[in-house]
Specification:
Helix content: 25-40%
CATH class: Alpha Beta
Strand content: 15-25%
CATH architecture: 3-Layer(aba) Sandwich
Structural class: alpha/beta
Number of helices: 8
Shape: globular
Number of domains: 1
Radius of gyration: 18 Å
Order of helices and strands: HHEHEEEHEEEHEEEEHHEHEE
Number of strands: 14
Distance between the termini: 44 Å
Length: about 280
């Protein structure tokens, strides 16, 4: 990391805090997700996980919380404005030690094992998440638990998502812009799996019902969630034309399927202000 990155992050922090004060933030991510005083939050799905992780980390940091961000798979390397410090080391004991010593100094640290191709970082193990959490020094650990190659819709591939057992909250993200698109490799991650799960044939249009199925099916994007975890469905990009109408339809269909762990649906617009348009409860 460049030596001036903390200064860059401090400038961003000051600007964002002033903006949020003026806006009043009627729908902050912290409130919309109903966060408790300490959480391990795993993010799964497609259509905005990384953006959500760093926006939420920023909100928590601005509220004086100690935050660690990482992934159990791969993640795009964050910009200087997204994290106060990025620390890479192949040895997970070194990662744990760095967090223990420097978290009070930086407030928000992103950790990973190494740089990979295409600007991505190699993630950490679930056991390291457990070790970090047991130290009691961290308020929030945010983990991106699967990949989607930039598509708005996905079904998990074999071995994913990689949700740590200590996870208290799982947030599943899907992009409302996926509705109406063709079910193909260009628009969907693992299109064959999505087709089998939802009944939408390859090449046909993706429906709002299909997104609700992906959110609630046992083999959908919440697969592997610990039974004690809370679950929130996050429908992103509702600021596109007709996005709110479509998002509300998806929320209704999610609740109709009566998933026992889904307590709310958040309609998000992570590239806009505020980042949440509406929260719908079951």
């Amino acid at each position: 990391m460049e030596p001036d990155q903390k200064d860059i992050y401090s400038i961003v922090k000051k600007h964002v805090k002033e903006t949020e004060k003026r806006a009043g933030y009627p729908y902050s991510l912290i409130e919309s997700l109903g966060l408790k005083p300490r959480e391990v939050i795993s993010l799964v799905g497609a259509g905005g996980k990384t953006t959500l992780m760093f926006r939420l980390a920023r909100e928590l940091f601005l509220n004086g919380k100690k935050v660690v961000t990482s992934t159990t798979t791969k993640i795009l390397e964050p910009s200087p404005g997204e994290t106060a410090f990025l620390y890479l080391h192949l040895d997970e004991e070194e990662l744990e030690q760095f967090v223990s010593v420097h978290l009070d100094q930086y407030g928000h640290i992103t950790i990973a094992r190494e740089r990979l191709g295409s600007g991505k970082l190699k993630g950490i193990s679930s056991s390291l998440v457990s070790d970090l959490w047991s130290s009691q020094k961290i308020d929030y650990i945010l983990i991106e638990a699967d990949g989607a190659a930039g598509r708005p819709v996905k079904a998990p591939r074999e071995g994913e998502p990689v949700i740590p057992v200590d996870t208290t909250l799982v947030v599943a993200v899907l992009g409302v812009d996926g509705v109406g698109g063709e079910l193909n490799e260009e628009n969907v991650f693992q299109p064959q799996r999505v087709s089998m799960m939802t009944g939408v044939p390859i090449g046909e249009r993706i429906t709002d019902e299909a997104l609700a199925i992906l959110m609630t099916d046992p083999e959908g994007i919440f697969r592997g969630t610990p039974p004690t975890s809370r679950i929130i469905a996050f429908i992103n990009k509702v600021d596109i034309p007709n996005g709110m109408v479509t998002g509300k339809r998806i929320a209704q269909k999610i609740f109709e399927r009566k998933h026992p762990q889904i307590e709310r649906v958040v309609l998000g617009q992570l590239r806009s202000e505020p980042p949440v348009a509406e929260v719908i409860f079951s």
